[in-house]
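Hello forum,

I keep getting stuck at the same step: I have a sequence, I want structure tokens, and every attempt I make locally crashes halfway through. Rather than fight my setup again tonight, could one of you with a working pipeline run this one for me? It's a single chain of 355 residues.
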Amino acid sequence: MNSSLWYRTPPCEWKEGLPVGNGVLAGMVCGSIEKERIALNHEWLWRATHRERDVEEKHQHLAEIRRLFFEGKVFESGTLANQRLGGPGGVSGTKNRVGSYQPVGDLFLEFQHGEVSNYRRELNLATGIVTVNYTAGDGSYQREILAHAAMPLLMIRVKSEVPCTFKAALARLEDPECDLSPWMRADAFGFSGTFVEGLQFAAEARVVLKSGNTTPVDGADAALMLTDCSEAVIHVSMAVAIDGGDATGQCRQQLEAGQESWGELLETHVEQHRRVYSRVTIDLGSGREDLPADERLAAWRSGKTDEGLIALYFNFGRYLLQASSLGASVPVNLQGKWNEELKPPWECDLHNDVN
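Reply #2:
Ran it on my machine without issues. Output:
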């Protein structure tokens, strides 16, 4: 109860997407109809600038700062504190910004549907799965997206009542300070990237079809055309060579570790996700779960009662923290683990306060 965040319409922008994550990997599912975009992030992908900035010990200046303050020399005390205790930036003249948290790229799924009906997108907080459902032409379509709670994989399943054809592609927005090298083969596609500072990263998507076939797309950077398929599973792996290793090789090792079927991987994901999420339950009263979240919020603002919406908000906060920290080795940053910008606000960095 109070664990379903759903909408009748696709989002207008990235921040209205539905997030999935396992602490290491993260994806923002936009849920668009003809061109689905899943924005990809990895916890270790940061611009490697202005690092190794340890400062010298400064505690020995505190006694003099206090003496001046308690003698009533507040201005002198404050000036000395800025000079002696201040970190990078400010009066120091030293650069104080770390390199920004960076997007890995985007997975795009491009369809030719035309007019659709019965659209619904939903994030089930209790399972960590995003679903997108709609009817187009002669049949219904469904996409399921999750970040596996126990494995370094994002997983996407596309199902349709009638065989369909669509393009799957990995891309990254233009960045003059990152050299991108795309590639593709019969059942997989991806790219490796290198920032000017030397840090390397990679992303790879591997396709498993129940029927139909795949073909590399001529002229595309990293894309396959999936033809006449009624069910396709796409595994996405990402890696960052933080210790100078082989990011592309790490991607492939991670993909090789996830050879089970969709059903088997789904079962282990839900089990591990629920192991944490189900530790807390809250019941504040009844709610309008039959309405999408945006309509519930609008009704709340107009003065209508919906205690369940408060519980849903509470659960969404728990979900976001779990999805951005559960298997993480890097603390949650200002936006959890989700970022689409090369220059995000405040570098999307790590703060001691809570936003």
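The radius of gyration is 24 Å. If your local run keeps crashing, start a new thread with the error log.
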